[in-house]
Amino acid sequence: MSDLNIRLLLHRLWRMWRDSGRAKDRPPSFAFVPGGDQVRDAVLEQWGISVIASDQDDPQQGLQSFLDKLALDVRGGDGHGGGEGGP
């Protein structure tokens, strides 16, 4: 959250939803972040963004690991595609 442009963007999005009168219809938002930072996480949660934090020090490696796990879960954990009626 050290980049002011990102913080400004998130604030403007939050304010846009609030001012629209449809804040309750806002879809869930998620942010993948490296490492744990309770202050950053609290700020993001305040803006309605759920934090997905990596436990790895290297942000690139953490993101790759997260995406690999996500892909495996989407495929049903067996690598053959997921869903009912699939091969």
Description:
This protein has 87 residues and is an alpha+beta fold. The chain has one domain. It is built from three helices and two strands, in the order αβαβα. The relative contact order is 0.12.
Considering the chains and any ligands shown, give keywords for the structure.
alpha+beta, two-stranded parallel ribbon, 2 strands, 14% strand, globular
List the helices and strands and how they pair.
Elements: H1 4-20, E1 29-34, H2 38-46, E2 49-54, H3 59-74
Parallel strand pairs: 1-2
Summary, kept brief:
The chain has 87 residues and is an alpha+beta fold. The chain has helices at residues 4-20, 38-46, 59-74, and strands spanning 29-34, 49-54.
Helix content: 40-55%
Derived structural class: alpha+beta
Low-pLDDT residue spans? none
Q: Which whole number gives the mean pLDDT?
A: 84
What coarse outline follows from CA principal-axis ratios?
Answer: globular
Q: What does the radius of gyration come to?
A: 17 Å
What portion of the residues fall into strands of 2 or more residues? 5-15%
Distinct helical segment count: 3
Biggest beta-sheet profile: 2 strands, parallel
SSE arrangement, N to C: HEHEH
How many structurally independent domains? 1
Strand tally: 2
Q: How are the strands of the biggest sheet laid out side by side?
A: 1-2
Distance between the termini: 43 Å
